[in-house]
């Protein structure tokens, strides 16, 4: 079987920005009296804000408060990360190679719209992907929906898709969708990604082997 589509997560996968998210979450948690640690952060890394805030606050949270707190956190994240915006090593080369080989490219990210725009605009990636699937209106990771929607938009069966992810929640989502998942270890140790269902892990996108060899 040949790989017909490659679907990428964005934050922590194509760009190495997770430490800036953690810093922004930590400041917000201090402000609202919530507990934050690396383990707590990793438990919700990759989820949508509407799923994160009830966990963080330990109660139901209305849309208005989610919007206000989320806007504050994301504005701080963008302020922190914008001066450091850069692709993970080898990302541009891989994207160009896959496109030249006729492989379809998808983006499946839980990032809010302004965060996606900052990265896609800043790295000139707006015309790079055949489909960009956003989390609005569908269950977030670790549910498989965002990846299944990507496969549908690309008109490729899940079994012919390879996904690159950096977080357990994302790896689990893509694996549950029936896709082959490769972990990028910018964020957590390889062991964590293997537990989620990754078949291999790499530090970045340089010197990757033929992706066809990873298909189940």
Structure report:
- The structure is a single chain.
- By secondary structure, this protein is of the alpha/beta class.
- The protein folds into two domains: 5-17 and 86-214, Rossmann fold, CATH 3.40.50; 18-83, DNA polymerase, domain 1.
- Helices cover 44% and strands 12% of the residues.
- The protein has helices spanning 18-32, 38-44, 49-57, 63-81, 91-100, 113-122, 145-154, 168-176, 190-196, and strands at residues 5-8, 104-108, 131-133, 161-165, 180-184, 200-202.
- It has a six-stranded parallel sheet with strand order 3-2-1-4-5-6.
- Helix 1 (18-32) crosses helix 4 and helix 8 (168-176) packs parallel to helix 9.
- The protein is globular and about 50 Å long.
Q: Can you describe this structure in just a few lines?
A:
Helix content is about 45%, strand content about 10%.
